[in-house]
Amino acid sequence: MAQPPPGELPCGFRIGRYTVVDPLGRGAMAWTYRATGPDGRLVALKVPYRRCLTDPTFVVRFLQEGALGARLHHPAIVRVLEAGEDEGRLFIAMELVDGRTLASVMVARAPLPLPVGLGIAREVASALAHAHAQGIIHRDLKPENVMLSRDGSVRVLDFGIARIAGERGLTTAGTFIGSPRYAAPEAAVGPVDARADLYALGIMLFEMLEGQPPFDDPSPVRLLLLHARQPLPAPETLPVALPDEVWRLVSGLCAKDPAARIQTAFAVQDELERVRERLDPRSGGGG
């Protein structure tokens, strides 16, 4: 049986103040390793592939991820501990979350029970509210970037293409960045604001509760067009019947026109809590 590819960095390799233990996974641009820090605690260490370092825009974006992440201190956001460079290798050290991604949980368990899905969405909205208050837009919110820890907490990670609201983007004009399955309609045609994150949250909430996303296509271009032009499926056609107030919340997040959406993450957080309390008064405003 073929073995998985080894990590680019071997066990014991030192980068900055960190020592690699083993690879946790790999993405499109970087490996993530389990590593020990200077105090002996385990951390997650993100190290981009060598080939990516030839792209000056990528280098700026990667260092920006560390700088932005270090500004965000919130219980529902994975904390960035340090970002730096060591002998030509870039790295970001983050707290290590003991748990699974929302994506992997949904593969095994979707659709999620209504209280569970609403609770996860509420915590993600809380994280977004904090980031947006700092002027930071995530821009790539998706289940792979949400961790469900073993202690029950929800953590948003990877602000790798995040941008400070109002500042000029770092990508080439006309280049789409993000994940098409969760992309707001406006993301394909121009700049976005914080409401694009709320659209992505709405698509995630739909997927958590229905067990499938509202739009899917193997072609990224066709998928972006579906987000831009195709209405949400009619609620009576869905595999899971949702209470009216939940459907209003989902459709309010997934409006094509940003001006027609729920406008702030704080408002989404409040509405999620009200819906949870109406459906289950015993929730009592808890997380």
Structure, described:
This protein is of the alpha+beta class. The chain has two domains: 14-95, Phosphorylase Kinase, domain 1; 99-282, Transferase(Phosphotransferase) domain 1 (Transferase(Phosphotransferase), domain 1, Orthogonal Bundle). The protein contains seven helices and eleven strands. Strands 1-2-3-4-6-5 form a six-stranded antiparallel beta sheet, with helices on one face. Strand 5 (80-86) and strand 6 (89-95) form a beta hairpin. It is globular. 40% of the residues are buried.
Features:
Transferase(Phosphotransferase), domain 1, six-stranded antiparallel β-sheet, 2 domains, 287 residues, Phosphorylase Kinase, domain 1, disordered N terminus, 7 helices, alpha+beta
Mean pLDDT reading: 86
**Assembly context of the chains:** single chain
The sequence of SSEs as H and E is: EEEEHEEEHHEEEEHHHH
Radius of gyration: 19 Å
Distance between the termini: 44 Å
In the CATH classification, which architecture of the largest domain applies?
A: Orthogonal Bundle
How many structural domains are formed by the residues?
2
The largest sheet is:
6 strands, antiparallel
What level of helicity do the residues show? Answer: 25-40%
CATH superfamily of the largest domain: Transferase(Phosphotransferase) domain 1
User: How many runs of DSSP E, i.e. beta strands?
Assistant: 11
Bin the strand percentage: 15-25%
How large is the count of helical segments? 7
Unreliable segments (pLDDT under 50, ≥5 consecutive)?
1-5, 168-174
